[in-house]
C-alpha cells in the first residue's frame, strides 16, 4: 500500500500565508504605486522604510551564519542593504540621505520583531527571511519595472538597484533551491506551524507599513 504523500513545507508555508500575501499586495498604497499614480517622493519614502527592515534582517547575518536552522539561508548574494543605500543616495540627490530619516511606527515594529526573532528564535527569523527575499525575487521585479517606467530610472540602475540581484544568474533556479532548504528545515511539525504563523505575522507587519504609507500619500479625489 502506498504511503500518503507529504506536502512539502515550502508549499504549506506559501498556501497558508496566501491570504495575508494578497492583502499586502492589494493595499491602496501598493496599488497606487504600481499603477503609476504616486510621485517619486512616495517611492523614496517606501524605499526608506525598506532600509530599516533590511538593516534589521542583515545585521543578524554574521551571528546566524553558523546556526543549523537559519544559517543555510544566509546567502551573500541576497544582501540588499548596500543596494538600498545606493538607491537612497540617488533618490535624495547625495550622500546625506540619512539626515532626518526615521522609520514609520509600523516599520519600527516590523524591524523590532525581526531583531527579536534573530536574537531569540532562528526559525522565526527564517519566516521573515523567506517573506522578504523570495518576494523581492518575484513580485519585487514588478515594482522595479514600474519605477523605471514611471520615474525614468535607468534600467536596473541607481534608484532600482534594490531589485537587481547581480549575484543570481537564474532566479527561478535560486528560488527552487531556497524552497528545498525550507523543505529540509531541521525542526519538528509543531515548530513548522509556528514558522507558518510567523510568516503570516510578517505579512501583517508589512501590510501595516503599507497602510501608514497610504495615509501619508493619499491620492487626491
User: Biggest sheet: strands, sense, closure?
Assistant: none
CATH class, please?
Mainly Alpha
Mean pLDDT level: 93
So how many helices? 11
CATH architecture: Up-down Bundle
Under CATH, the topology can be stated as Heme Oxygenase, Chain A
Write down the domain tally. Answer: 1
Count of individual beta strands: 0
- Give the overall shape, derived from the CA principal axes: globular
Radius of gyration: 18 Å
Unreliably modeled segments: none
User: Can you write the helix and strand succession as a string?
Assistant: HHHHHHHHHHH
Approximately how much helix is present in the residues?
55-70%
Q: Any idea what the CATH superfamily is called?
A: Heme oxygenase-like
Distance between the amino and carboxyl termini: 64 Å
Task: Provide an overview of this structure.
The chain has 221 residues and is mainly alpha-helical. It has a single domain (9-216), classed as Heme Oxygenase, Chain A. It contains eleven helices and no strands. Helix 1 packs parallel to helix 11 (189-216), helix 2 packs parallel to helix 11 (189-216) and helix 7 packs antiparallel against helix 11 (189-216). The chain is globular, with a radius of gyration of 18 Å. The model has no long low-confidence stretch (mean pLDDT 93).
Amino acid at each position: 500500500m502506498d504511503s500518503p504523500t507529504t506536502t512539502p513545507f515550502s508549499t504549506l508555508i506559501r498556501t497558508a500565508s496566501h491570504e495575508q500575501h494578497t492583502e499586502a499586495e492589494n493595499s491602496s498604497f501598493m496599488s497606487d504605486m504600481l499603477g503609476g499614480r504616486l510621485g517619486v517622493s512616495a517611492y523614496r519614502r517606501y524605499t526608506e522604510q525598506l532600509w530599516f527592515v533590511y538593516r534589521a534582517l542583515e545585521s543578524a547575518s554574521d551571528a546566524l551564519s553558523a546556526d543549523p536552522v537559519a544559517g543555510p539561508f544566509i546567502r551573500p548574494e541576497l544582501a540588499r542593504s548596500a543596494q538600498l543605500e545606493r538607491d537612497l543616495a540617488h533618490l535624495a540627490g547625495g550622500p546625506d540621505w540619512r539626515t532626518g530619516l526615521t522609520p514609520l511606527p509600523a516599520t519600527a515594529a516590523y524591524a523590532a520583531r525581526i531583531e527579536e526573532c534573530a536574537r531569540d528564535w532562528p526559525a522565526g527569523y527564517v519566516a521573515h527571511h523567506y517573506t522578504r527575499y523570495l518576494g523581492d525575487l518575484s513580485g519585487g521585479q514588478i515594482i522595479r519595472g514600474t519605477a523605471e517606467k514611471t520615474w525614468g530610472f535607468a534600467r536596473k540602475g541607481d534608484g532600482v538597484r534594490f531589485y537587481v540581484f547581480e549575484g543570481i544568474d537564474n532566479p527561478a533556479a535560486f528560488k527552487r533551491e531556497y524552497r528545498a532548504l525550507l523543505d529540509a528545515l531541521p525542526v519538528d511539525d509543531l515548530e513548522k506551524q509556528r514558522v507558518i504563523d510567523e510568516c503570516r505575522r510578517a505579512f501583517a507587519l508589512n501590510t501595516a507599513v503599507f497602510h501608514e504609507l497610504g495615509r501619508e500619500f493619499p491620492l487626491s479625489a
